Protein backbone atom coordinates (compact mmCIF):
# COMPACT_ATOMS: atom_id res chain seq x y z
CA UNK A 1 0.00 0.00 0.00
CA UNK A 2 2.88 2.30 0.74
CA UNK A 3 4.19 2.01 -2.85
CA UNK A 4 0.74 2.87 -4.25
CA UNK A 5 0.39 5.91 -1.99
CA UNK A 6 3.92 7.10 -2.82
CA UNK A 7 3.28 6.60 -6.53
CA UNK A 8 -0.02 8.50 -6.27
CA UNK A 9 1.69 11.39 -4.49
CA UNK A 10 4.48 11.54 -7.09
CA UNK A 11 1.94 11.40 -9.95
CA UNK A 12 -0.11 14.18 -8.32
CA UNK A 13 3.03 16.29 -7.86
CA UNK A 14 4.05 15.81 -11.52
CA UNK A 15 0.54 16.73 -12.73
CA UNK A 16 0.49 19.77 -10.42
CA UNK A 17 3.90 20.92 -11.66
CA UNK A 18 2.81 20.41 -15.27
CA UNK A 19 -0.34 22.47 -14.69
CA UNK A 20 1.51 25.29 -12.98
CA UNK A 21 4.12 25.33 -15.74
CA UNK A 22 1.30 25.59 -18.28
CA UNK A 23 -0.24 28.39 -16.25
CA UNK A 24 3.12 30.16 -16.20
CA UNK A 25 3.40 29.75 -19.97
CA UNK A 26 -0.12 31.10 -20.41
CA UNK A 27 0.60 33.98 -18.06
CA UNK A 28 3.82 34.72 -19.95
CA UNK A 29 2.05 34.66 -23.30
CA UNK A 30 -0.78 36.78 -21.87
CA UNK A 31 1.79 39.26 -20.57
CA UNK A 32 3.49 39.29 -23.97
CA UNK A 33 0.14 39.80 -25.71
CA UNK A 34 -0.72 42.63 -23.33
CA UNK A 35 2.68 44.25 -23.91
CA UNK A 36 2.20 43.92 -27.67
CA UNK A 37 -1.31 45.45 -27.40
CA UNK A 38 0.05 48.30 -25.26
CA UNK A 39 2.82 48.97 -27.80
CA UNK A 40 0.24 49.06 -30.61
CA UNK A 41 -1.94 51.43 -28.55
CA UNK A 42 1.07 53.67 -27.88
CA UNK A 43 1.87 53.80 -31.61
CA UNK A 44 -1.71 54.73 -32.49
CA UNK A 45 -1.71 57.40 -29.75
CA UNK A 46 1.51 58.89 -31.15
CA UNK A 47 -0.18 59.69 -34.48
CA UNK A 48 -1.84 63.10 -34.32
CA UNK A 49 -5.55 63.10 -34.99
CA UNK A 50 -6.46 64.44 -38.41
CA UNK A 51 -8.62 67.47 -37.75
CA UNK A 52 -9.50 70.28 -40.12
CA UNK A 53 -11.33 73.58 -39.72
CA UNK A 54 -14.04 75.19 -41.83
CA UNK A 55 -12.50 76.03 -45.22
CA UNK A 56 -9.65 73.50 -44.92
CA UNK A 57 -9.65 70.29 -46.98
CA UNK A 58 -9.83 67.03 -45.02
CA UNK A 59 -9.48 63.54 -46.50
CA UNK A 60 -11.13 60.25 -45.70
CA UNK A 61 -10.62 57.39 -48.11
CA UNK A 62 -11.42 58.46 -51.68
CA UNK A 63 -13.01 61.78 -50.71
CA UNK A 64 -11.61 65.19 -49.94
CA UNK A 65 -14.12 67.24 -47.93
CA UNK A 66 -14.10 70.99 -47.54
CA UNK A 67 -16.73 72.35 -45.18
CA UNK A 68 -17.75 75.77 -46.50
CA UNK A 69 -20.16 76.80 -43.74
CA UNK A 70 -22.39 75.62 -40.91
CA UNK A 71 -25.62 77.46 -40.10
CA UNK A 72 -27.79 76.39 -37.16
CA UNK A 73 -31.07 77.73 -35.80
CA UNK A 74 -33.10 76.96 -38.92
CA UNK A 75 -36.68 75.95 -38.06
CA UNK A 76 -37.90 74.88 -41.53
CA UNK A 77 -36.44 73.86 -44.89
CA UNK A 78 -38.22 73.99 -48.26
CA UNK A 79 -41.51 75.59 -49.17
CA UNK A 80 -44.89 75.69 -47.48
CA UNK A 81 -46.08 72.85 -49.74
CA UNK A 82 -42.90 70.76 -49.76
CA UNK A 83 -40.59 71.04 -46.82
CA UNK A 84 -39.49 69.76 -43.45
CA UNK A 85 -39.94 71.25 -40.00
CA UNK A 86 -37.20 70.69 -37.40
CA UNK A 87 -37.94 68.78 -34.22
CA UNK A 88 -35.47 71.15 -32.57
CA UNK A 89 -33.33 73.18 -34.97
CA UNK A 90 -31.74 72.34 -38.29
CA UNK A 91 -28.01 72.80 -38.75
CA UNK A 92 -27.18 73.15 -42.44
CA UNK A 93 -23.60 72.17 -43.27
CA UNK A 94 -22.48 73.16 -46.76
CA UNK A 95 -19.70 70.88 -47.94
CA UNK A 96 -17.69 70.32 -51.10
CA UNK A 97 -16.94 66.65 -51.75
CA UNK A 98 -14.24 65.76 -54.29
CA UNK A 99 -13.41 62.23 -55.44
CA UNK A 100 -9.62 61.87 -55.17
CA UNK A 101 -9.69 58.14 -55.97
CA UNK A 102 -9.36 56.24 -59.24
CA UNK A 103 -12.94 54.98 -59.50
CA UNK A 104 -16.44 56.24 -58.81
CA UNK A 105 -17.40 56.49 -55.15
CA UNK A 106 -20.88 56.99 -53.73
CA UNK A 107 -21.37 59.92 -51.38
CA UNK A 108 -24.07 59.34 -48.78
CA UNK A 109 -25.02 62.25 -46.55
CA UNK A 110 -26.49 59.85 -44.00
CA UNK A 111 -22.99 58.48 -43.26
CA UNK A 112 -21.95 61.86 -41.82
CA UNK A 113 -22.07 62.63 -38.09
CA UNK A 114 -22.07 65.74 -35.94
CA UNK A 115 -21.08 66.14 -32.29
CA UNK A 116 -21.81 68.61 -29.50
CA UNK A 117 -19.22 69.67 -26.91
CA UNK A 118 -20.30 66.91 -24.49
CA UNK A 119 -19.67 64.23 -27.15
CA UNK A 120 -23.31 63.57 -28.05
CA UNK A 121 -23.52 62.18 -31.58
CA UNK A 122 -26.14 63.38 -34.07
CA UNK A 123 -27.10 61.66 -37.32
CA UNK A 124 -27.73 63.47 -40.58
CA UNK A 125 -31.37 63.99 -41.56
CA UNK A 126 -31.57 62.62 -45.12
CA UNK A 127 -35.25 63.51 -45.47
CA UNK A 128 -34.65 67.17 -44.66
CA UNK A 129 -31.55 67.22 -46.89
CA UNK A 130 -33.79 66.51 -49.90
CA UNK A 131 -35.37 69.94 -49.37
CA UNK A 132 -32.05 71.67 -48.69
CA UNK A 133 -30.45 70.41 -51.93
CA UNK A 134 -31.90 71.26 -55.33
CA UNK A 135 -30.29 68.29 -57.10
CA UNK A 136 -30.01 65.75 -54.25
CA UNK A 137 -26.22 66.22 -54.10
CA UNK A 138 -25.91 64.56 -50.69
CA UNK A 139 -28.20 61.57 -51.24
CA UNK A 140 -26.47 58.47 -52.65
CA UNK A 141 -24.62 60.45 -55.30
CA UNK A 142 -21.96 58.67 -57.39
CA UNK A 143 -18.99 60.96 -57.90
CA UNK A 144 -16.51 60.02 -60.62
CA UNK A 145 -12.74 60.43 -60.10
CA UNK A 146 -11.69 64.08 -60.23
CA UNK A 147 -15.28 65.34 -60.01
CA UNK A 148 -16.80 67.17 -57.07
CA UNK A 149 -20.21 68.18 -55.76
CA UNK A 150 -21.38 70.89 -53.39
CA UNK A 151 -24.23 70.00 -51.11
CA UNK A 152 -25.88 70.56 -47.77
CA UNK A 153 -25.87 67.93 -45.04
CA UNK A 154 -28.66 68.58 -42.53
CA UNK A 155 -28.70 67.74 -38.83
CA UNK A 156 -31.81 68.10 -36.64
CA UNK A 157 -30.57 68.83 -33.12
CA UNK A 158 -32.17 70.21 -29.92
CA UNK A 159 -32.63 73.98 -29.80
CA UNK A 160 -30.22 74.45 -26.89
CA UNK A 161 -27.36 72.46 -28.47
CA UNK A 162 -24.34 73.81 -30.34
CA UNK A 163 -22.37 71.56 -32.69
CA UNK A 164 -18.60 71.60 -32.22
CA UNK A 165 -17.35 69.09 -34.78
CA UNK A 166 -18.28 66.95 -37.75
CA UNK A 167 -17.06 63.45 -38.57
CA UNK A 168 -17.09 63.04 -42.35
CA UNK A 169 -16.93 59.63 -44.03
CA UNK A 170 -16.35 58.41 -47.57
CA UNK A 171 -18.46 55.33 -46.72
CA UNK A 172 -20.45 54.01 -43.75
CA UNK A 173 -17.47 51.84 -42.76
CA UNK A 174 -14.57 54.29 -43.08
CA UNK A 175 -12.68 55.77 -40.14
CA UNK A 176 -13.81 59.32 -40.91
CA UNK A 177 -12.09 62.67 -40.55
CA UNK A 178 -12.95 65.40 -38.04
CA UNK A 179 -13.75 69.00 -38.88
CA UNK A 180 -14.06 71.46 -36.00
CA UNK A 181 -16.86 73.99 -36.21
CA UNK A 182 -15.75 76.41 -33.49
What does the secondary structure layout of this molecule look like, with pairings?
Blueprint: H1 2-46, E1 51-53, E2 57-60, E3 63-78, E4 83-99, E5 105-107, E6 113-116, E7 121-123, H2 126-132, E8 141-143, E9 148-157, E10 163-168, E11 177-180
Parallel strand pairs: 1-11
Antiparallel strand pairs: 2-3, 3-4, 4-9, 5-8, 6-7, 6-10, 10-11
Tag the structure with descriptive keywords:
182 residues; alpha+beta; Immunoglobulin-like; 11 strands; globular; disordered N terminus
Question: Can you characterise this structure?
Answer:
This protein has 182 residues and is α+β, with helices and mostly antiparallel strands. The chain folds into two domains: 1-47; 51-180, Immunoglobulin-like, CATH 2.60.40. It is built from two helices and eleven strands. It has helices at residues 2-46, 126-132, and strands spanning 51-53, 57-60, 63-78, 83-99, 105-107, 113-116, 121-123, 141-143, 148-157, 163-168, 177-180. It has a five-stranded mixed sheet, with no helix packed on it. Strands 2-3-4-9 form a four-stranded antiparallel sheet, with helices on one face. Strands 5-8 form a two-stranded antiparallel sheet. Mean pLDDT is 80; it is low at 1-49.
Amino acid sequence: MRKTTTFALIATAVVALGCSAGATDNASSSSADAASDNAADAKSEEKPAKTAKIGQPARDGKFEFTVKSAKCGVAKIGTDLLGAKAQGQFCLVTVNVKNIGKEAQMFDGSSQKAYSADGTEYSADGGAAIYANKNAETFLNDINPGNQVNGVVVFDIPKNVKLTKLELHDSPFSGGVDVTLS
